């Protein structure tokens, strides 16, 4: 199968595993992580008031908050938790699709995970840069900024490596399917020569027609 330009930017494996095995592992790990995150954030609905009381986002103590402040923070907490649960539901579904697609060579089932992980990588990159630059603005937090940049960069690189594993599998599946399509098409366009049999006294002769 001829190599395409994209073949120069793909991986051959995921650590010591093949791309198929690595993608299946990433899918199951993503599903398990999302499943427990959904349970944890769902249980936090029962303790929203306690979460609000533990926050220190204003100069007021929780006892001095007005009913409007409490109602606003209560609704904001419900909205944020609901958004997080929705995000993890999407991640769980995308991970299941990834497992199925990697196990049964269905490349289109890899697309939801790739899209979801692309959004995550963009978000993590912005947060990583923002935290690093913010902590660099004060001489007292330069040390924290260096640590956050280093460890955040390692985590970001690992997430990008995981993304490249699934993306590489997607590219290889696409190229294999395209090669198979071209092979089948060539077989239909150029069938093998047809021969007819002629019986002669000296023996059997095959003539190409």
UniProtKB/TrEMBL annotation:
Q: Taxonomically, what lineage is the organism?
A: Eukaryota, Metazoa, Ecdysozoa, Arthropoda, Hexapoda
Q: Which InterPro entries match?
A: DUF4728
Q: Does the keyword Transmembrane helix apply?
A: yes
Q: Which PANTHER family does its entry note? A: LP21121P-RELATED, PASIFLORA 1, ISOFORM A-RELATED
**From which organism does this entry originate?**
Polypedilum vanderplanki
Keywords from UniProt, A to Z, are: Membrane, Transmembrane, Transmembrane helix
Q: So which domain of life are we looking at?
A: Eukaryota
- Span-the-membrane segments of this chain are 12-39, 76-100, 121-138, 144-172
Instruction: Please state what the protein is called.
Output: Uncharacterized protein
